[in-house]
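Example: Phosphoserine aminotransferase.
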Amino acid sequence: MAKVYNFSAGPAVLPHAVLAEAQSELLDWHGSGMSVMEMSHRGKEFMEIIHDAEHDLRQLMDIPAGYKVLFLQGGASLQFAMVPLNLLGDKESVDIVNTGHWSKLAIKEARRYAKVNVAASSEDRNFSYIPEEAAWQRDPNAAYLHYTSNETIGGLQFPYVPAEQHGVPLVCDMSSDFLSREVDVSRFGMIYAGAQKNIGPSGLTVLIIREELLGKARADIPTMLNYQVHADADSMYNTPGTYPIYIAGLVFKWLKEQGGVKGIATRNEEKAGLLYHVIDSSGGFYSTHIEQPFRSKMNVVFKLKDESLDEIFLLEARKNGLAQLKGHRAVGGMRASIYNAMPIEGVKSLVNFMQDFARQYG
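Written out as structure tokens, the predicted fold is:
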């Protein structure tokens, strides 16, 4: 089998060791005689799997007491509605920071249920930066402040956690940089993340929520969208995504073997540094419009000086075992997603290819 480095933005590369373990257990999980896909979600075998996954996640992120961990479905996109439906309470407005594509979708959906105050926006400079926090226009009466820590499509990432003000809790869509760097969970009211980038396969959404924020859902909320319902049932109100949870659990164990979040963050810094160096040192052959302090360490977005070379670049890259580098249709160009599971060897292969391509066509 030809070796391929998969730079897809999501669903994305998974650790080889995790895939190998899942393969070995596919037909018979730990001597149970069953595949995880066949198990009852309430049987003792799967209960062990989900409890282990939560335990390992709590260890990896040092999640304090007073927070619930939920394994839900519907992707991060469903959270754009679930967040205001659950957290608005007796408030009328919410604050949202607009830093790109996913922030805009969160704003659009929240407007169906609440008055949205766009506390800050970088749309004036094509989402190339994050506005200085001191200049944000926050509503002291907002139910929460929502931001997207890493814009997968645009390649923009918050280098810091915003400060909580006026007792307004922080809500973060951390889908594409979850577990990629250390964060202090106690600073957040809620964190959510779609699994298909740094956690596991698609079909799972992980939620970490401060318990005091539960029980605020509007009266007419559908039962399946109520955080309190899922918290009371320990993510078992209905049949959860059993196989994605199983894979996520394997990923959490793999991550602990890599030195935890601190260890993987060091590796992520190194990988991103290699890619941005080849872009910055290319003499303009490659470029990124993201201002240096806000460049994503997960999704490196760049363009070729001559766009007519784009298809040649992609074809040649694929011949060299480098797959899924085409940028999102909204921004064009190229995108190399280098999540936790992307080995540094893959990034080095891409860097070497980019240097060779620039020498040949520059």
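The CA atoms of residues 271 and 347 lie 6 Å apart.
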